[in-house]
Write a structure and sequence with these properties.
The protein has 23 helices and 7 strands. The strands form 2 sheets. The chain has a 5-stranded parallel sheet, with helices on both faces. Strands 6-7 form a two-stranded antiparallel ribbon. A hairpin with a 5-residue loop joins strand 6 and strand 7. The relative contact order is 0.08.
Length: 504
Amino acid sequence: MEDQRPNPFASYGQILDTEGFIGRTDAINALKARVIEAASPGCVAIVGPPRIGKSSLAYHVLRRPERVAELMDRRLIAVWCNIHTLTSTDQLLRNFVRLVLEQLEDFGQQSARLDTAGQRAAECDNLTELQHQVQRFFRLVTLEGWRTVIVLEEFDAARQVFQQNAIGFQTLRTLADNPEWRVAFVTCSRRSIPEIELQSRADISNFHNIFHYLFLKPFQEDEHQALLERLGPVRLSLAPEELATINPITGRHPYLTSVLCFFLVQSWLNAGRATLDEALQAAQETFIIYYDSLVHLLAEDATLDKMIQLLFGPLINAIPEDAARLVRIGLLRQDADGTYRAFSSHFGEYLRLTERSVDFWPLWTQTERALRGLIASVMTETYPRGDWTEAVEQARPKLKKMLDDCRARMADEQRRFGPRASTSLLDYTYPGDLYQIIRTHWSAFQPTLKQNEAYWELRFDLLARIRNTVAHNRDEVLALDERQTAEGYCREILRRVGGSKAEA
């Protein structure tokens, strides 16, 4: 019989109420100190990747019903505005006035002169006059003893709302800066304010200078453990090794952990059994949709290729500042030896899958594809009966371990990412693996590559070292002379293989 108890993780992905909110003590204290407890509230930017809990933090501190009532008692008006639903500066300003008047009405704090000032703002037919009337409205709010905080959710949308319009950012800055009508803004965004200003192409804006930044990352260990303790009420008990595995899979990301636990609990309630591997399979599509959103965000910000360089090498144009930004927003972690890894092992595997289609070094990507195509063609001709990889193992037993490692990587990727995973075994090879196949079948490849084995061993040795070893040196970009030599080798391979026309 199906268990009727509620799934404690059923609300994953939504803004959490008081009961569902966990941790973030430091961020809560910083937000309170800057916005609530200050005599004159200041601006705060909450920045972090999607679904990390930015809106939940703002809601917990400023907008849950009991907190709104408490803040009103302290003469502080806190309202919520989703900028993604708006299309222009004047619409945004009118919305500010409307939200404040509605909250005053909700708490029986109406004011005739504020109503009149709000009406004047609503009737303005040009932006300049509207700005003046909105400033006048908030000056009256201040004169009546109120402080105002406006939460701007989805602030990334300012890139479109204020596109090529520095006046929009400057209008917000003026509202926040002048003590006569000071409004404190709390923004929730995936990017920092300077990045949003830059991508809006709004010329010069100094709006970002007035903010205190809170960067939200995946949970700390104690916060993550508190989240996992919600398995208790449904009496779902996992083996210690399974619990320990959740950490690297989700990287202590609250959303991903909640998704995984939702499927664990649902299986437990429906069938009386639950395994981590089955839950991960059930959650696979949700995880991939989330990863897609991260990759889209990184690609849009021109940092996807740099993250891949930092994780897998070679370092072409990724610099320490790029790594610092990715660590700051919680997508990368730096180990004690200075190397970087993705915030979760599962996301790292997904990025390795993505790496095949990202031309962070187009010439090298062309070269790998050309070599794999050449090997597939030559091996099919050399072993025309059945699967050439099985024939190779019999003819060249020393290649068996390398091919088995590739099969293991392919099976793991297919298990984790389903049809998105490549079905070509050669896609799971490294440069050294490719050369092993070529070297052990040199007579078949010599007509195409020319020269001799020693000649190509030198070239593949450099390419393999650049492709793999550089991943362990995070502080320096690929040396110019090495890159130029490697590019020459790539062009030579492409010229010999004929898989692409090498550009001079």
